[in-house]
Specification:
The chain has strands spanning about 15-20, 25-30, 35-40, 50, 60-65, 70-75, 80-95, 100-110, 115, 125, 135-145, 160-165. By secondary structure, it is mostly beta strands. The strands form 3 sheets. Strands 1, 3, 4, 6, 8, 9 and 11 form a 7-stranded antiparallel β-sheet that branches. Strands 10-7-12 form a 3-stranded antiparallel β-sheet, with no helix packed on it. Strands 2-5 form a two-stranded antiparallel ribbon. The model has no long low-confidence stretch (mean pLDDT about 95).
Length: about 170
């Protein structure tokens, strides 16, 4: 009789890093009761054309040189395996007085086409160990929309954010 050992190594942890945070640049914004204005940053970091539902609601791009999509890098995944992803815990950008609604998420995985995403709705991506030397990328764009106040938004920095959860 010859005893044989059986070994296995488990690596369930993915290595995540925020390569870039989302930034909408500098805008001018005015709210209007019953109407909204929106602007988006694409997964490529390019600002979209602002839109409005009418009335006095407006967003205008003042300077988009700082505009960036969010990018998360994912490493140490198992090749060809589906990874569950979910955007959640969305916090609308605010200065403590005024706020925008953060929604309209779009993702691009490993440079692929854009896909519309809804916060708190899981989706899957497939890890590709041949892509980027084993480091996959998820680019995320979104939009900000004015809310009801019938006043110009106050000058200053507005901060918000969201979590992106990856799991097998």
């Amino acid at each position: 009789t010859q005893p044989i050992t059986a070994d296995v190594t488990v690596l369930n942890s993915l290595t995540l890093a925020a390569a870039s945070d989302m930034n909408f640049g500098t805008v001018a914004a005015v709210g209007d009761t019953g109407n909204t204005a929106s602007v988006s940053v694409g997964t490529d970091g390019v600002m979209g054309v602002p839109s409005t539902t009418g009335g006095g609601a407006r967003i205008a791009i003042v300077d988009d040189t700082a505009a960036t999509a969010a990018q998360i890098t994912v490493a140490d995944g198992a090749d060809g395996v589906a990874i569950n992803v979910e955007i959640n815990n969305v916090v609308d950008p605010t200065d403590g007085t005024d706020s925008f609604t953060l929604a309209g998420f779009q993702t691009s995985y490993n440079g692929g086409g854009d896909t519309a995403r809804t916060a708190a709705t899981p989706f899957t991506v497939t890890f590709d160990s041949a892509f980027g030397g084993g480091t996959n990328t998820l680019d995320i764009g979104a939009s900000i929309t004015t809310v009801d106040p019938s006043v110009a938004y106050g000058d200053g920095a507005y901060a918000g954010g969201f979590d992106v959860v990856f799991s097998y």
